[in-house]
Amino acid sequence: MRFAPAAADVVGFLAMEISFPQHGKPPERADLLPLLRAAGADLDALYARADAVRRAHCGEAVPIRAIVEFSNYCANGCLYCGLRASNAAPHRYRMAPAEILAAARQIAAAGIAGTVVLQAGETPGYSDEDLASVVRRIKTETPALAITLSVGNRPRDVYARWRDAGMDRYLLRFETSAPDLFARLHPDCTLAARLQCLRDLKSLGVQTGSGFMIGLPGETIEILADNILLCREFDFDMIGIGPYVPNPDTPLGDQPNAYAADPDMFFRALAVLRLANPDAHIPATTAFDAVFPNGRDLALQRGANVFMPNATPSPLRKDYQLYPGKPCIDEDATDCARCVQARLHALGRPVAQGPAHSLKRPPTTR
Ligand code: SF4
Q1: Residue 7's pLDDT band (cuts 50, 70, 90)
Q2: Which atom of ligand 1 is nearest to the CA of 82?
Q3: Greatest Cα-to-Cα distance within the chain, rounded to the nearest angstrom
Q4: Which residues contact 87 (CB under 8 A, 6 or more apart)?
Q5: Atom of ligand 1 minimally distant from the CA of 85
Q6: Closest atom of ligand 1 relative to the 75 alpha carbon
Q7: Is 172 in the pocket of ligand 1 (CB under 6 A)?
Q8: Whose CA, among 167, 192, 226, 364, lies 20 to 30 Å from 335?
Q9: How far is the CA of 331 from the centre of ligand 1 (A)?
Q10: For residue 88, how far is its CA from the centre of ligand 1 (angstroms)?
Q11: Whose CA is nearest to atom 4 of ligand 1?
């Protein structure tokens, strides 16, 4: 049986089919392209459909994940990234374990975020065991907080060690599904290696998040559709996407976003991502605020269901700029906590209680 279209237009019909594939064939690139080209009333219908699918699968409450950018050291040279090793612009820092623990305690005490996300460059200046120890101590001292790590490609046994220490989740974006484009932008890594890391994490029972940048130079709308389909194929627990923002301190600095002339594409991509991945946690990433006033608020109304405020100690924030115009670098953690509550209140969306684990599968019991 096939569902009747939600509206008498092709966007409404395709949106229904993609959201409920059990009533039709799994989506293919050709199914997504009309949605990624939607305009006018069709675009409004697409956003409304994405918001309805988000509401049906994730509810109204918004999980809050507080990000602590604990080191901006990285040995890699990704061509778009402000943290690349050869960029002399940022002052390099590494928070001590006691500072990371203090940040986690502060997040737990504020009682707003249910997760601490520990993010750094791929070589943050800690040994694998150092990081395991930090995770263990956070889990012991603040057991109510879920812990997400995001420090790049690692061997499977390292992920397993961190999981055993208490890591609940891991974030590792694949950035683009096109192998050639990936190779051009990432001199230190291949797409195959990145995808193997993601398979390793999933096989270990770690809640796995990934995602991509929208509009990398060289991206086509077909690649964008494939990025969305790859997220669906991997059945990620969390999917973070955001507009590519050129950073003048990088080799890609003078190359504009592939959709610079059509910024609606950023939200089209988000809405289609939601339709194709109905029960994934999808954050309203900070890059939306960098390219649109109140971009994260719009994202929460067009498919996103998670908010990730910055909880990095304020003096360090200015040195963790993957791209220019990153919001919230002058605020402190208390400002960000107040801001997120006000933004969600204005949208009529409550803050989710607890860690808000994956909607797809129960967390691994350790
Ligand atoms: S994207 Fe990640 S791995 Fe690449 S240079 Fe930046 S911090 Fe390092």
Answers
A1: very low
A2: 6
A3: 60
A4: 249, 250
A5: 5
A6: 8
A7: no
A8: 167
A9: 24
A10: 14
A11: 78
Q: Give me the residues paired with residue 65 across strands.
A: 115
Over residues 355-363, the mean pLDDT reads 85
71 contacts 121 by C-beta, under 8 angstroms = yes
The predicted pLDDT at position 25 comes to 75
Least confident among 153-162, 255-264, 266-275, 338-347: 338-347
Cα–Cα distances in angstroms (integers) from residue 19 to residues 22, 150, 231, 274, 300, in the given order = 9, 29, 14, 8, 18
* Candidate of 78, 87, 118 to mutate for ligand 1, largest count of ligand atoms within 8 Å of Cβ: 78
Q: Is the CB of 121 under 6 A from ligand 1?
A: yes
What kind of fold does domain 63-347 have according to CATH?
Answer: TIM Barrel (3.20.20)
Helical ranges in the chain per DSSP H: 10-19, 29-36, 40-58, 97-110, 128-141, 156-165, 179-185, 191-203, 221-234, 264-276, 286-291, 295-300, 314-317, 333-347
Cβ(81) – ligand 1 distance below 6 Å? yes
Q: What is the CA radius of gyration of the chain?
A: 19
Yes or no: say if 303 and 271 are a contact pair by the CB < 8 Å rule: yes
User: Nearest-CA neighbor of 328 among 351, 296, 298?
Assistant: 296
Q: Write out pLDDT tens, residues 229-258.
A: 999 999 999 999 999 999 999 999 999 999
Q: How far away, in angstroms, is 122 Cα from ligand 1 center? A: 6
Residue 1 has pLDDT above 60, yes or no: no
- Are 218 and 258 contacting, i.e. CB atoms less than 8 angstroms apart? yes
Ligand 1 atom closest to Cα of residue 72: 7
Residue-wise DSSP of 280-305: SB-EE-HHHHHHSTTHHHHHHTTT--
| DSSP conformation class of 94 | B
Distance 177 CA to ligand 1 centre (A): 17
